[in-house]
Backbone:
RNA sequence: GCAUGGGUGGCAGAGUAGCUAUGCAGCGGACUGCAAAUCCGCGGACCUGGGUGCAAAUCCCGGCCUGUGCUCCA
């Protein structure tokens, strides 16, 4: 089967053909750790997590690199405010990132390079860019000179030099300083008093924002590599700057074969941002729902679309998610996994699922198939046909679990079931007693008393459901 | 202003020419004393004006609305 992905540069879906057959290198721009991670970071990490999972599932050996920009203006500002070292700010937020990503079931990248660990390599690349005539040193730093490679402008956003010249309007004047041209961007910034800095041939300072990614991708993935990803808000200027740097330094065109960008999160129809006050950290969200419910919510739309996020959306997706998990949990507690390939229905579901994923990682289509298998599983559970239950469970484990990452691992599911069992045991006698009383009341058609007992049970956290085979109860 | 996406039922959101998307919500039914859970069924949509086609939500042109980018941003 052929995997097609949407390439921002060509603005079309292209068949994935890797530079080295059977292997794929993917570089994803990570976070600037100046504050605890928000759900936009979660959406991005989950989107690329699933992309990587699917590439692996397709038989490719994946090398996945995600970076941390652990030095920047905002990190410095916060460090100064709190009177601590800038690395303390970065480190605590990186720790937070790893913690929440683990909760969200994001498989770690193969490497997480940090800017502060590759300063010599950055200086090397800047040196090369000066030697090749693409960069120049000025009184306040080193800049990349756009006019040395004008043909590379606007490859991702479609803008031309003229457009920016005109459209920049009032913004042009405030960018000045040592630049020859307002469109040039910084490779090395000389330190102002009190700022963290590293020595360089051009004076003490620190790297500009874009150069790190060119250096890191080169280091880990080579002079040319397959996929470069990131949020759509990074297309300009960050990723276009990377194209200038990498291609001019390495003399390859293109360095990156496929550019893929995830959509933003909207709240009330607008991009989530701190200034609008419509901001959710990951911890905000997972204080309301389980982490995997959040994960489920964030893959409801294909990765390129904006995701509309609010309480209602979160509630909606968690209610379906619970249905999925309860059917799955019931399934694995009743029988071991079988072989889904023995079922025609499940083969069909697999085929639809894979077709969706191969069409630019369409998780929405994939979820529809998951929903349909859950429905199928419910039917089989209700009719006690355990061969079918065990094959459906194995399908879900493979696709909803391994590929989409929305199921907890079986030990955790079983642990949870066990925990619930033991909690049940603790109240079991009391509940049985009350249920007997209720049974008698119901037999006497004393509905008031029966409902009173049900309310009483509800207060101690027990939900009673009357099935055709008598009452079933569970803990909230 | 320029660039680049999008406008599908109450909500979310697939679908690029002919065949029920799907989920949540709603309605009806089964089951129930009621409720819950589960199952079955139903209704309801393709921004607008033209064009091409036997056939258009789907292709082409115009209009309107809207998101994002052009400054740090996942």
Residues:
């Amino acid at each position: 089967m052929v995997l097609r992905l949407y390439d921002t540069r060509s603005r079309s879906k292209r068949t994935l053909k890797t530079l080295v057959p059977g292997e794929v290198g993917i570089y994803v721009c990570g976070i600037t750790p100046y504050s605890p991670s928000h759900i936009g970071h979660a959406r991005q990490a989950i989107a690329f997590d699933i992309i990587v999972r699917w590439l692996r599932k397709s038989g490719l050996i994946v090398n996945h690199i995600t970076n941390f920009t652990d030095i920047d203006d905002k990190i410095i500002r916060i460090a100064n405010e709190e009177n601590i070292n800038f690395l303390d700010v970065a480190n605590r937020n990186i720790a937070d990132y790893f913690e929440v990503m683990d909760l969200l079931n994001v498989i770690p990248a193969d490497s997480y390079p940090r800017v502060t660990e590759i300063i010599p390599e950055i200086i090397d690349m800047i040196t090369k860019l000066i030697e090749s005539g693409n960069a120049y040193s000025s009184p306040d730093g080193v800049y990349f000179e756009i006019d040395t490679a004008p043909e590379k402008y606007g490859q991702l956003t479609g803008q031309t030099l003229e457009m920016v010249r005109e459209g920049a309007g009032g913004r042009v004047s405030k960018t000045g300083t040592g630049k020859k041209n307002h469109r040039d961007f910084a490779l090395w910034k000389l330190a102002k008093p009190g700022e963290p800095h590293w020595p360089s041939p051009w004076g003490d300072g620190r790297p500009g924002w874009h150069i790190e990614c060119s250096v890191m991708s080169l280091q880990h993935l080579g002079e040319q590599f397959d996929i470069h990803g990131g949020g759509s808000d990074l297309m300009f200027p960050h990723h276009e700057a990377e194209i200038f740097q990498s291609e001019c330094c390495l003399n390859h065109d293109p360095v990156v074969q496929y550019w893929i960008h995830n959509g933003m999160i909207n709240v009330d129809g607008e991009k989530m941002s701190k200034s609008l006050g419509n901001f959710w950290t990951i911890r905000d969200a997972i204080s309301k729902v389980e982490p995997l419910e959040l994960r489920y919510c964030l893959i409801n739309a294909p990765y390129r679309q904006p995701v509309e996020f609010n309480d209602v959306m979160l509630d909606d997706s968690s209610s379906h998610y619970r249905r999925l998990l309860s059917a799955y949990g019931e399934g694995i507690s009743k029988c071991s996994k079988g072989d889904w390939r023995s079922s025609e229905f499940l083969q069909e579901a697999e085929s639809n699922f894979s077709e969706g994923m191969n069409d630019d990682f369409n998780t929405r289509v994939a979820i529809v198939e998951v929903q349909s298998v859950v429905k199928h599983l419910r039917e089989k559970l209700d009719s006690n046909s355990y061969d079918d239950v065990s094959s459906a469970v194995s399908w879900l484990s493979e696709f909803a679990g391994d590929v989409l990452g929305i199921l907890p691992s079986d030990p955790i599911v079983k642990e949870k079931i066990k925990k619930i069992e033991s909690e049940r045991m603790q109240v079991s006698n009391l509940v049985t007693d009350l249920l007997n009383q209720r049974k008698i009341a119901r037999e006497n058609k004393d509905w008031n008393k029966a409902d009173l007992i049900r309310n009483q049970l509800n207060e101690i956290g027990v939900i009673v459901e009357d099935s055709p085979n008598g009452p079933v109860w569970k803990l909230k």
Summary: The longest helix of chain A spans residues 410-443. Residues 166-176 of chain A have pLDDT under 50 and may be disordered. The radius of gyration of chain A is 27 Å. Residues 176 and 182 of chain A are 6 Å apart (CA to CA).
